[in-house]
Amino acid sequence: MSFLESWITNFLTITMFFYIASFLLYLVRLFKGPTIPDMILAIDALGYDLAAFLIILSILFKNPVLIPCAIVLTLWIYALDIYVAKYLEAKEMGE
């Protein structure tokens, strides 16, 4: 293992703890959020951070299987944003 590879592995391992801390903060905002847009924003941030976390795990495990899962999760969250924004704008769900 080269110096650069060990440095990147250590950096990503430390970064994982920050992601876990942010997950916990997003969950607090999700359950305690004063308004529905705050809760939606917490779900969005949690989902996008989870996708980034999956990519970090994919790099650490040296297994590319998690990357398509992260891409699908990101696209699903984006679609959820579009539908929720449409609902909040028009108060109806269309096509």
Could you characterize the architecture of this molecule?
The protein has helices at residues 3-32, 36-61, 66-90. It is mostly helical and 95 residues long. The protein has one domain (3-90). α1 runs antiparallel to α2. The model has no long low-confidence stretch (mean pLDDT 89).
Give the SSE map:
Blueprint: H1 3-32, H2 36-61, H3 66-90
Helix pairs in contact: 1-2, 2-3
Report the portion of residues in β strands. Answer: under 5%
Give the count of structural domains. 1
Profile the largest sheet: none
* SSE string: HHH
Mean pLDDT comes to: 89
Keyword list:
95 residues, elongated, mainly alpha
Brief sketch in words of this structure:
With 95 residues, the protein is an all-alpha fold.
